[in-house]
């Protein structure tokens, strides 16, 4: 599996909790910087996204040779932000300045084209976004975020609940093109007892549920 870690948050977690799995996981952080004439360092948004594209192209050409089964793209929210920054730089629009409607199309194109390139890979794809990509009936959502929600086959919303006795991490299936009966199903995939510090992990059950397996009734709420 290859992780494209645009947010830079996956690697520390993987090394802390899944050190034994890293032999089968390759982490690619595409973050790039540039230095101006005064020596000031800043993010090179265009080069960063070019590195993502290069990684996706390499995966498309080598996934059989290296037996790559899946790619994780962590950073949909960051990708959309970078696409906006590139648009503002190209059109000389200040960071806090108003943007003409036709310029937002540039942001949309940069964002969706990269999404489509990853989506076209003939292996399993996983996209990770922040809560701003969750669709709410009472909240306006940008066209780029709506497009992202439309492109994926399955959507899982993750939440953290803190009770007096335990901490619970819950997954809810918001969308499943392959099996609409799964929509609305939830599973508590991580439970931490505050007193004993005992940890119960059911992460595999989320994947089994998405793949349509029936033997995952434990801890699943209809």
Care to describe what's here?
By secondary structure, this protein is α/β, with parallel strands linked by helices. It folds into two domains: 1-152, no CATH class; 153-222, no CATH class. It contains six helices and eleven strands. The protein has helices at residues 10-17, 45-62, 76-90, 101-119, 143-151, 203-210, and strands at 2-5, 26-28, 33-35, 41-43, 70-74, 124-128, 154-162, 166-176, 186-193, 199-201, 220-221. The strands form three sheets. Strands 7, 8, 9, 10 and 11 form a five-stranded antiparallel sheet that branches. A hairpin with a 5-residue loop joins strand 9 (186-193) and strand 10 (199-201). Helix 3 packs across helix 4. It is globular and about 55 Å long.
State which percent range the strand residues make up.
Answer: 25-35%
Please give the radius of gyration in angstroms. Answer: 20 Å
**Chain-averaged pLDDT:** 88
* Head-to-tail CA distance between termini: 31 Å
**Class based on secondary structure composition and strand pairing:** alpha/beta
Number of helices: 6
**How many domains make up the 3D coordinates?**
2
Number of strands: 11
Low-confidence sequence ranges: 214-222
Level of helix content?
25-40%
Largest sheet features: 5 strands, antiparallel
Overall 3D form? globular
The SSE string, one letter per element, is EHEEEHEHHEHEEEEHE
